[in-house]
Structure formats: structure tokens, C-alpha cells
């Protein structure tokens, strides 16, 4: 595995893979099994696998956890090596950003609802850095987890709207054995908060079960889920189609149910694709 830190090193390294398919997994590090599953899939489907680790400041709002976001560079390098990554790109902030730059804005509706409503501007920062990374790596396929469903949908839209010739591969959400969706931010949870947080995946599971029994009315499912999460500080329960339009009735194979909740200082998001 080659570890590169600068853009010129990255360009030089990628030159040799001109005619090869490149699978790209952009991350902010603190890699867990969710990331590893993306890397494995990229490994399986491409000649070359590039992973980036960059804690992107422009997607954090003032007062969010940028400074304490978990950084585990040495462990991450080992994980990437074991997962047979070819190139690990770990740029620093000055390489990625300059002053008074051209910017990318998330769409004004889909980028500013749900996560984008609670974290206004977050998706501008996500799209800005992903666009830069795509331009640098020029991947054939880029891998994103369904856990960040809104991010995934917006990246798919960016690729389409900006005519980028990149295939976005949505990958399954990975859960711990107790059902909690894997996230680098889970390390912030106390034991008690973690136990309480299990209500999130339980609520999604109970909604899916009810849908399986024929219940398609969103308001019924929403109140069922609220009951399961009655001890949590729930920010939203949302029912969207796969292009992120709000729906009133479940559309089988075209619905995402999303939840965001706060456990102490930690925000957790989770979802299920129906
Ligand atoms: O999902 C993430 O880890 C980040 O939002 C991403 C896509 C790497 C952009 O910084």
C-alpha cells in the first residue's frame, strides 16, 4: 500500500493506473466495519482501490465536534493495509482548501431538509470535498454507505447534475450485533446511552415488520416508532422515497425511513430501506 499526503504525490501515483478501474472509498477515518465493507466491495469490483482519510472541516458547523472527531491514523493505516488498499490518500487541510474558493452548493430543498435542516450548510461542505476528491482520484466507482442516506442521494444527484462520469455504488448499512448502526461517533456514547440508543434500530425494525404485515400508512408507522423511542430525544422520523421526496404512503422498494436522535451530546442517525 502506498500512503500519499500531497496532491502532487497522489497524481504521480495514480498516473501508473491510467488504464485500470479505480474503486474509491472516501472517509473521515476512525474506520470501522462499515468502512471495511465498502473497501472490501471496492476491492472485489475494481483493479485498484483508493481510500481517502480527511476530516473535512467544511462539513462541520460551528460548535460541532470537528476538534474532537476521533482520529486514529495509525490503526486506520493498518486496517487499510490488511484490506489490501492500493493507495491511501491522507491530505492536510491546506492541500485541500485555499482562500476565497469557488464553492458547490447542495440543492436548496433536498440539501436543507432533515440533516440539512438541523445542520444547515453541512451538505455544501460534503459535496464540496467529495467533488474535489472525485476530481483528484477520478474513480470509476465510488462507494458510499446507505447509513448516510441523504448524503448518498445528494452525491448521486451531484454526479448527475455536474455530468461526472463516476458510478456511485450504494452499500448496505452495517450494524453491531446489538442492532446499533455502526458510526465513528458511537465512541462518544456512555454505556447507558448506548443501551438507550438501541431503541432507534428497534423502532425501524418494528416499522418494517408492520409494513410486512400490510400497514402502509405513514402516520400509523410514525406513531408506532415514536412509542418505541419514547425515552429518546428524537429529532425526526421521516418517510422519503429514494430520491428524497416526502411520502404519505409506503412505496415498497422505493422508501427510506430515517431517524435522528440525540443521546446526551451525541447525535445518531439510522435508517431502513424498504
Ligand atoms: O461520509 C463521510 O465520511 C464524509 O461525509 C465524506 C463522504 C468522506 C466526505 O467528507
Would you give an account of this structure?
- This protein has a 6-stranded parallel sheet with strand order 1-4-3-2-5-6, sandwiched between helices. A 3-stranded antiparallel sheet has the order 7-8-9, with helices on one face.
- The radius of gyration is 19 Å and the shape is globular.
- The protein contains 9 helices and 9 strands.
- Helix 7 links the parallel strand 5 (141-145) and strand 6.
- The protein is 37% helix and 20% strand.
- With 274 residues, it is an alpha/beta fold.
- The chain has helices spanning 7-15, 33-45, 73-82, 93-96, 115-118, 122-137, 149-161, 191-212, 218-228, and strands spanning 2-4, 22-27, 48-53, 87-89, 141-145, 167-171, 233-241, 255-263, 266-273.
- It has 2 domains: 2-171, Rossmann fold, CATH 3.40.50.620; 184-273, Pantoate--beta-alanine Ligase, Chain: A,domain 2, CATH 3.30.1300.
- Bound molecules: pantoate.
- Pantoate binds next to strand 2 and helix 6.
Molecular shape: globular
Q: State the helix count.
A: 9
Query: Which structural class fits the helix and strand makeup?
Result: alpha/beta
From the alpha carbons, calculate the radius of gyration and give it in angstroms.
Answer: 19 Å
Q: What is the average of the pLDDT values?
A: 97
Helix content: 25-40%
Largest sheet: 6 strands, parallel
Number of domains: 2
What ligands does this structure carry?
pantoate
User: In the CATH hierarchy, what is the superfamily of the largest domain?
Assistant: HUPs
Strand arrangement, major sheet:
1-4-3-2-5-6
Distance between the termini: 38 Å
* CATH architecture designation of the largest domain: 3-Layer(aba) Sandwich
- Indicate the low-confidence ranges by residue numbers: none
Q: What's the CATH class label of the largest domain?
A: Alpha Beta
CATH fold assignment of the largest domain? Rossmann fold
